[in-house]
Specification:
Layout lengths: L1 H11 L5 E3 L4 E5 L9 E7 L2 E5 L7 H11 L6 E5 L5 H4 L2 H7 L4 E4 L4 H5 L2 H11 L1 H7 L11 E3 L5 E4 L2 E7 L8 E5 L4 E5 L28 H12 L5 E4 L3 E3 L2 H21 L6 H19 L6 H26 L1
Parallel strand pairs: 4-5, 5-6, 6-7, 11-12
Antiparallel strand pairs: 1-2, 2-3, 3-4, 8-9, 9-10, 10-11, 12-13
Helix pairs in contact: 6-7, 8-9, 9-11, 10-11
Zinc ion binds next to loops.
Length: 327
Amino acid sequence: MAIQNDELAKLEMTEVFFQDHLCGITCIDTMLGRQGMASCYLIEQDGMLGFIDTGTNNSVSIMLEVLRRKGFEKEQVAYIMPTHVHLDHAGGVGGLMKEFSNAQLVVHPRGARHMIDPSKLEAGSLAVYGEEVYQRLFGNLIPVDPLRVIRAEDEMVLNFNGRELLFIDTPGHARHHYCIFDKASNGIFAGDTFGASYPQLNNGRAPLIFPPTTPVQFDPEAWTLSLKRLMSFKPERVFLTHYGMHLGLSDLATQLRLTIKDYADIAREYAGHSQRTERIASALLQGSVNHLLDQQCGVSETQIRELLAQDMSLNAQGLDFWLTCAE
Ligand SMILES: [Zn+2]
């Protein structure tokens, strides 16, 4: 009986994966779908804590476990900073605000109302993911008290216990997206604006980096300008939500800029096709497979397809919507 209880206790223990970087920055896996797909960041400055991106409602227990293992108290969390209000970044905001009573929410002015009243956000995400996947991944969203909301206008500087965090408006992936330039680490917390790049696929000669063109606000021109603006700060490193810390930014930025253009070209190429979403998805997936095999990434084609199929399907949905807006 005792053995069974022990086994049960083991199963109930929260599985957490996190990695400490420089300057009090910790990358935490939010376990969206699979390990290595989505992360968020804990930042610590002389005892003050903040989260940049949050994962989903399901990730709240992971954040609490990381704090516990690091010996931090809930009261130390001063800011919750979702880069934008897509649910893989901001789905856990309401849950975290409930846990951390001292915390304020710092959100893009265009995203604030959706955190205060998440009903539209829920409806929009249901349309993208469908009922079954939506409930499994995200669940019901918790509204945030408007008195605890700070709207981060472009170039707002947050004094994070003496550490300067600069909020930069970066449309392209979404119009409600900011990035944070952190002088201390010379790094940018980029959400989705600096693309997605999975470390497990990056063991070849060159990594794969792609723009998540998730519905419904893809804007290739704005995105390219946002990238240029981020690079103007001469950052050394970028902290991606999908996934982890990356160096060598000028190559990554160039590759991402070209891929944004490729994606728009592929979308236009299939614009008149009767099954264009499917055709775009398969073209994007094939392009990524070709690139990775060419770079000798060390992962089989079957695995690459498994790892990227959902991303490319969402990307195609976003490109399809972008085409529809232009028609
Ligand atoms: Zn997003």
